[in-house]
Every structure is written in C-alpha cells, then in structure tokens.
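Help! Submission page says 'invalid entity' but I think these are all valid:
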Amino acid sequence: MSQAIHEIKRRRTFAIISHPDAGKTTLTEKLLLYGGAVRLAGAVKSRKSKQYAVSDWMELERQRGISVTSSVLQFDYQGHKINILDTPGHQDFSEDTYRTLMAADSAVMLIDAAKGVEEQTKKLFHVCRKRGIPIFTFINKMDRHGKEPLDLLDEIEKVLSIKSYPMNWPIGRGREFKGIYDRATSKIELFTGTGHGATIVPTRVGDLSDPAITGAMNESVYNLLKEDLELLDLAGDNFDLDLIAKGELTPVYFGSALTNFGVGAFLDSFIELAPAPHEKPSTAGIIRPEQEEFSGFIFKIQANMDPAHRDRIAFLRICSGVFHRGMTVKHVPTGKNIRLSQSKQFMAQDATIIEEAYPGDIIGIFDPGIFRIGDTLTEKSNFAYEAIPKFQPEIFARVHLKDAMKRKQFVKGIEELTDEGAIQRFRHPDIGLEAPIIGAVGILQFEVLEYRLKHEYGVDISLEHLPFSLARWATGNNLTPQMLKTGDNLVVKDDDGNLVVLFRNQWSLNWEMDRNKQVTYLEHPPTQ
Ligand code: GDP
C-alpha cells in the first residue's frame, strides 16, 4: 500500500475556471509545455486557427472555435502527476463545467488583467467556493496594458468575497513586464528570453542587491515595485495555508501565458500548495483515498468519442484504492459487476490503454449502456458518493423528426445525449417520445444536438422553440396534469414519470404558487 500512498500524495487534480478568452487554452498548453508533454508549444496551434487544438475533437468545435467537450490531460512535473480537467469554455456548457468541478481537488482561476473578474468566472468561482476547494488565481496577459495589480486584488476581494495573497508581484507592466518578485524568498526572476512562447522561457534569478537584476529595471519600475511591496506588507492579508486549503484565501500569481512569463513560477508553487486527493463523504461515511477498496464516481459521459466506433465513454474519478486493468467492479446503482478491461486515459487527442491508476486520476471506461452521471463504482461495497447536481434548463424546444423512417435512431440519439447530460428530455403526457421536449441551458446546445444527431445518428430534425424559461417539478397529493395546467404553462413528464411544469418566467411561477397552495414546486426532481 505504501506505493499507493506515494502515488496519491504526488497527484494534483484540478480544473481551470475562467471567462472565455481569458487564455485558458493558452495556459493549458503552456502547462503541458512545462510538463514536457508538448515539446514546442507552438506546435499546438490555437483552436482558433485551422489546426487541431489539444482538447478539441468535434468538427463543430473547430468551426466555431470553441471547446464544447471536456477532456483530461495528464503529465508529470517535478515528481508530481498533474491531472488537468479541461472544461468547455462556452457558457452554454457551464453545467458540464460544474460537473467537472466535482471531480477536481482544486481550481485555478484565470483572470485577464485587462478585464478583471468577469461573469463566467464569478459563476464558476461560486461553484468552487460552495465545494470548499482551494482556488489559485493566475492573473494573465500581464504582457499587455491592463488594470493595476493592486486594483485587481481589490476587485477579487470585493466581487468574490475571498481574501487574497499575492505570492509574487509583477515587475513592470505591459511591454515592460520583465519579471516577477517572489514574496516568500524575496528573489527576483527576470525573464531573459524573447517571450515568443514556443519554448520554456529562460530566466535569471537574483535579489534586489544584485546589480545585474536592478540594472535590468529602469528607475520607475524599481520604485513602483518597492512601493507596491511596502503597501502589500502593510495592508495585505497574511499567508495562511489553512485558509487556502479551505478555499477562503486565494494565492495570486502574475504572468503571461502567451509569453510563458511566470508560468514556471506558478506551476512550482502550485504543486507545493495544491492538495493531493483527499477523503470524500459518502453514504457510508468518509472514504479515504488510501483505503484498499477501489471506488470512484462517474462525472461525465460522452457518446461517440471515436466516430469509427459507436462507443460511449464514462469518465470516472478514482477516489480510493488502485485501479488495475481487467479488474471487476460493482456498479452500485444496479448491483451489476463489470470488468474494466479497456480503460483509457486521454492525453491530448490520443487515448492510451492504462494498466494502473490511482485516486485523483480520471479514467475513461466503456459504458455498456448502464451508467448515469453521478454513479458510484466500487469493488464490493454499496456506498454512494454525493449526487452531482443537475443543471437548470433555461430554454426549451420541441424536437421533430423529419424522416419518420429514422425513428429508432432518433430515440436512441436523444436518449444517449440525455444520458450524457448534454440536454434534459421531457415528454408531453399525451404525445410521448415522438416529439420530445428538450431543455438546455444555452442555445448552442441545440446546435450541438442538431449537429450530433445528424453526424452521429444520421437523423435530421427541426426545432420548434417554446416560450418557456423555467422548469419546476410539481409535488403534492394526487396531482394530475389537468390540475397543473393553466393558460400559459406546459405540463410535461421527465423520464422517471415525475410531473414537470414549464413556466414562461418567474412571474408566472410566482402567480401559480400563490394561486395553488396545494402544490410545491421544486427546482430538482423530488428524489434528488
Ligand atoms: P480561452 O478562450 O480562455 O481558452 O482563451 P485562449 O487561450 O484561446 O486565448 C484567447 C486570446 O487571448 C488568444 O488570442 C490568445 O493568444 C490570447 N492570449 C492568451 N494568453 C495571453 C497572454 O498572456 N497575453 C496576451 N497578450 N494574449 C494572450
């Protein structure tokens, strides 16, 4: 078991949270570069160009220049095993990101120095905060003109209500961004490279008494650094590892993912401070990663990852024990035993068969068609990890099949995409599955639905958009659809037969709640 403990301790599993365009793709690629996983970062072209990017696999993503799906990237860095849970950048897929955050032990919050704390970052931050996971902040694009670092810290504290502790401080701004000052060691790292970003940037390390270091700064840069540091020492929060672990204080790092400045310093500090996989609550109490019995939970399901094979991959976060290829595990919700013979790990676009994996790792396992998001797998026990919350759909459409001959593929496609969690399916009590009503959080999800049904299932559909924005599960005694129906709502059922009412807006929900006090409207299915 000591081998397993060693493996657990060296793992760091995290996700990057940010607003689109803050530089997540760029930073991910640079972390891979520093991890030696990609020789030349330049070789991994931005997905906004015509080339493939690391985490893209759908044609649609390349067309639209957005990352729709998440994958997991693993690399070694200074004796540590890093797992980056890649998350979709587009806000229409934020619930996919929420689920992925359930599998992360910490988060890196990436902020564009010119834009500060943006909307999407705020939402994702709150999900992390609720889970109490440590949040590390990387302030990006310091090579460009942006807000003053002190103002950015202030903004983080005010907008997000979290304390911050700058681990380092930028020397110069914009084009004059020359290096960083490390507050723990008082050492200065000057970037001596050109900053094209294709290779690890060369640096020179010294302190403020080193003339070679101070000589490289002009007087105003030097004075500004001194002033800022004095202010921080006087007025800033103290470094406190306990508060970091609880997610109440965020360590802040400055840099530029584009030029690589500050990326190495961030990674070195992150592997020291970020938590290794730790215990998790379950229905049978706390489960420790080092316990012998293998266990984990599914946080994501993806159909047709490989267009050559009609397969479904479930992504499993290992929480305890050791995974060995070919082992038999128990699918707790059904009690079925499943042999995991072909589990894969995904590195960039290649999937490799893995022999062994440890807590903190994510493995992709073939789904025989029984897995749902949130399911627990164990060796023999019957416990379950915490449920993964379902997203709230905000837009709705009725889906019509164009060619009735394709009905079978249509039902299968909708069912698989529902299991993936990409959409939520409802049915009209009288119509059934012929023309299901689909709920999603963003309009782009409908585009993906249309695209995937066509390309993966050969089915053409048309969408009839519906004027609703809220779905509520209705509970009460002997409810019937007739009792819930009003002039401007729609009563449907979910896959488990629960009654769901679609409302136009909050106002009509409130009106209905006032009118009919026998009914309780829930945001989630009654069993969740
Ligand atoms: P994502 O949407 O968060 O994945 O953002 P990308 O990584 O695709 O970056 C968005 C844009 O910002 C691209 O044009 C990048 O080249 C640019 N970018 C990313 N990091 C930096 C940086 O540190 N400095 C500058 N100047 N541009 C950056």
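Support: the input was valid. A stray whitespace character was the problem, and the output above is from the cleaned input. The first helix runs from residue 2 to 9.
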